[in-house]
């Protein structure tokens, strides 16, 4: 049986900013006060990219305008994002994880899958191995991660989203009915707002109800996406971790937004993050890109894509980001892939 870990940094942008501030002599830990990452504290422009647990208690949500967040909590501390610093922490984390196994698939700046199958015998149990990794990340870097463990990537990711922060959770197929089926349908991976609304009209309110529903009925209302959600509810997913090949014809990165993005102001930081990852990997490989390709998949699974030839090959992230954003329009409710 495969053993797959999903490792996710808890509130990455805020955690990394907090650790960096503490290293530079700050007396207050951003994670312990109402604080957000996003925009500028004086102008109060921009959107919330990350929030602390105390900020969450005020009803502050990721993706909402910073001005709204300040109305909910006037004493809120807002720190502007520093994507170069985030890239450093992300790179350090991935380098550390690769000391365990090279079989790692990084899916965003703050999360990855690890195929633990080949080294599981070195530990008393998968949980023991995950605990070692989690604790060593905190000891080395000062931030926390959640680790989800299962036999496939889907269930490992679902497990890592259970109680946070700084936790290890398992979700093996035999645990699905107890641990996953009672959860609200919105907690299912890839169940967006529009899909949840359709399912609720069908009186499907939990993951278990979806799993036990007629898949043909779900497909009738949500087409292929509905079939995929039904499979996810039953724990059906791939276990193959796509570690980065040593020699690749193309280098890229992708992410799926946890919440709908509605403005270009929300979209740009995502493209910046992805471009930084691609630029870093190009430099590491000693290569330059001659063409940039960008694709957006919307909430209803329409796609928008374009390619652009570079006048001069480059591995600079700002150039990659600028070209990726050209011709991208209709930035409503999109998810980057």
Q: What characteristics describe this protein?
A:
disordered C terminus, single chain, 337 residues, alpha+beta, five-stranded mixed beta sheet, three-stranded mixed beta sheet, globular
* Structure classification: alpha+beta
- Please, what is the oligomeric state? single chain
Strand order in the sheet with the most strands: 5-6-1-7-8
Envelope shape? globular
Strand content: 15-25%
Count of strand segments: 11
Describe this structure in words.
The chain has 337 residues and is of the alpha+beta class. 39% of the residues lie in helices and 17% in strands. The chain is built from twelve helices and eleven strands. It has helices spanning 12-23, 53-56, 66-72, 83-97, 126-141, 153-160, 176-179, 193-201, 207-211, 215-233, 264-285, 317-325; strands at residues 4-9, 35-37, 50-51, 77-79, 104-108, 111-115, 145-150, 168-170, 289-298, 303-314, 334-336. A five-stranded mixed beta sheet has the order 5-6-1-7-8. Helix 6 (153-160) links the parallel strand 7 and strand 8 (168-170). The two termini are 29 Å apart.
Short description:
With 337 residues, the protein is of the alpha+beta class. It is 39% helix and 17% strand.
Write the layout of secondary structure elements.
Layout: E1 4-9, H1 12-23, E2 35-37, E3 50-51, H2 53-56, H3 66-72, E4 77-79, H4 83-97, E5 104-108, E6 111-115, H5 126-141, E7 145-150, H6 153-160, E8 168-170, H7 176-179, H8 193-201, H9 207-211, H10 215-233, H11 264-285, E9 289-298, E10 303-314, H12 317-325, E11 334-336
Parallel strand pairs: 2-4, 7-8
Antiparallel strand pairs: 1-6, 1-7, 2-3, 5-6, 9-10, 9-11
